[in-house]
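Notes to self, START-like domain-containing protein:
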Amino acid sequence: MEDKIKYEMEFPIQVSPSLLYQYISTPSGMSEWYADNVNSRGEYFTFIWEGSEEKAKLLGKKSGERIKFRWVDDEDTDYYFELRIQVDEITKDVSLMITDYAEEDEVDEGKMLWDNMVSDLKQVLGST
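result:
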């Protein structure tokens, strides 16, 4: 298996950090923009897209700040994806920071996917 490449993205979002956190950390919030449906049992989240299911283990979260998952298929690796809220101390601008991994030839595709999903999130939140 090829090594995956870590990439990070930043999306400015005009919304309160506490509201944004609800949408990135709860099954009901994530099913509004990330997947068609999201269920959680303990530390495992099941993401459902058009009938296919992917399971991820919750690696950690810090209330109001970030949430981190590892796909069950990647359990024996260091790969993860993290959604983190960053607030500029001076301007108070809010950004959603995304860290993810993809194989070299799939990084652009991964970034496009995140672009589309965060665009959906912004629509749900009424942010521009």
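- The longest strand covers residues 52-62.
- Strands lie at 4-12, 37-41, 44-49, 52-62, 66-71, 81-87, 94-103.
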